[in-house]
Amino acid sequence: MEKVNQTFFLSHGSPTLSIDDTLEARQFFKSWTHKVLPQKPKSILVISAHWDTKFPSVNTVLHNNTIHDFSGFPDPMYKLKYEAPGAIELGKRVKELLMKEGGMKRVDEDTKRGLDHGAWVPLMLMYPEADIPICQLSVQSNQNGSYHYNMGKALASLKDEGVLIIGSGSATHNLRKLDFNITNGSSIPWALEFDHWLRDSLLQGRYGDVNEWEERAPNAKMAHPLPEHLYPLHVAMGAAGEDAKAEQIHTSWQLGTLSYSSYSFTSSP
């Protein structure tokens, strides 16, 4: 079994990514197996911003159904399906690692939940065959960045087992500040400043600063009024290890304040 020596943080932007071919990010996700990760993983663990629970939870299902957890979008989006197999074994392994390595007292299993749009929208473009088993892990918005970083650290050994670890969130996420008059591709200064701070911190390996982003980043509360869209980043970062090298693998903008900045973290040998 081939090891996976990278973890990823993907900004999944708007659910319209599922149908809108004008979005630059859509082309990035579609080019995934050619340009980013040609290696086919054994299974995929997705930490999505759209599953937020009091205690860490994994979904242990045979088949993933498609959750359309968004409202007010065009009808065709509600007909999209991404029915990848579940990864029950991986879910149980995640639970075991979080408790043994991460010292978590409680990890729940959800035996009904499928994939939310933070998982299936990007994966539908990246792995359209839907033939790789997928498990989701929830975030805890009542916790902080360091908590999620440590959660990732507890899961690091999964890479040696051929598991692709993906944090799916958003580099910026303030839906009240979207600008519907701006041309796609342009960004608003406060959002760009946060996005650049995040990029520079990651590329310089200042993971401690990123863990404390609420104190250290410019416009932190404007970029993320709530933290759940950044926490998947901390998990991916932690799972790659302290000496991991970050690389920005994509950046683009939608509606002025929604960044698609995405990163890979390559573990040091």
From TrEMBL:
<keyword id="KW-0479">Metal-binding</keyword>
<comment type="similarity">
    <text>Belongs to the DODA-type extradiol aromatic ring-opening dioxygenase family.</text>
</comment>
<protein>
    <recommendedName>
        <fullName>Extradiol ring-cleavage dioxygenase class III enzyme subunit B domain-containing protein</fullName>
    </recommendedName>
</protein>
<dbReference type="InterPro" id="IPR014436">
    <property type="entry name" value="Extradiol_dOase_DODA"/>
</dbReference>
<keyword id="KW-0223">Dioxygenase</keyword>
<dbReference type="GO" id="GO:0016702">
    <property type="term" value="F:oxidoreductase activity, acting on single donors with incorporation of molecular oxygen, incorporation of two atoms of oxygen"/>
</dbReference>
<dbReference type="Pfam" id="PF02900">
    <property type="entry name" value="LigB"/>
</dbReference>
<keyword id="KW-0560">Oxidoreductase</keyword>
<dbReference type="GO" id="GO:0008270">
    <property type="term" value="F:zinc ion binding"/>
</dbReference>
<dbReference type="InterPro" id="IPR004183">
    <property type="entry name" value="Xdiol_dOase_suB"/>
</dbReference>
<feature type="domain" description="Extradiol ring-cleavage dioxygenase class III enzyme subunit B">
    <location>
        <begin position="7"/>
        <end position="265"/>
    </location>
</feature>
<keyword id="KW-0862">Zinc</keyword>
<dbReference type="GO" id="GO:0008198">
    <property type="term" value="F:ferrous iron binding"/>
</dbReference>
